[in-house]
Amino acid sequence: MIVDVVTIFPGMFTSPFAESIMFRARNQGLFELNVHDLRDYCHDRHRVVDDYPYGGGAGMVMRPEPVVAALQALKRIDLAAEVLLPSPSGEPFSQALAQELSAMDQIVIFCPHYEGVDERVTTWVDREISLGDYILTGGELPAMVMIDAVVRLLPGVLGSAASLKEESFSPLLEYPHYTRPAEFAGLRVPEILLSGHHARIQEWRRRQALRRTFERRPELLAEAELTSAEVRLIERWRLEEHSGRNVV
Is residue 208 part of a domain? Predict the structure, then answer.
């Protein structure tokens, strides 16, 4: 996969992709990351990328000319490619969307700044994507999050295929994890995890994932494939919640 990023702060992308899994994947040629300075696509002497908004108002708006010039120059017409724009008005980013994007040959991400970008730029954008209902200073951090989420799904990037499959195909929140020591600050690892009984451990983990999802992100349960026994268990939790009891 080829990842092209257009930004006015290219230096921001140096450190996050010079460490850990992303660094190793890039070194092994599993993906190619190219970071482009938007100002290189300006044609005026001062390399201006922003201007005052028509109609007045606070802040500056990014001009369309350099942005469109960059997108047109970078998007490969011979590949399955999409141009992405981090935007609070975009579709919510999700694991399902990350999986969809991981099938592309190329993604081009433009990182907006100031009050945003001239609306006409969206004519050259395939997807506007939102990471959440909050405000950031620019599109660089959302771009990094999207790249990380997509690249880790590429073949060979993660060492454990089983781990990737478990994360990728379950909408449930993860079960609790424990490691040595077996007791720390008076807190013990659940005995079931020390039993060596793999079938019972898997059953415990599934139940814990269900319970955690029920308590913290209940809307995700609608996307999960549940057995009839699990559906009954969740209904029991709902009844117990309404009655004021809390039974795991």
Answer: yes
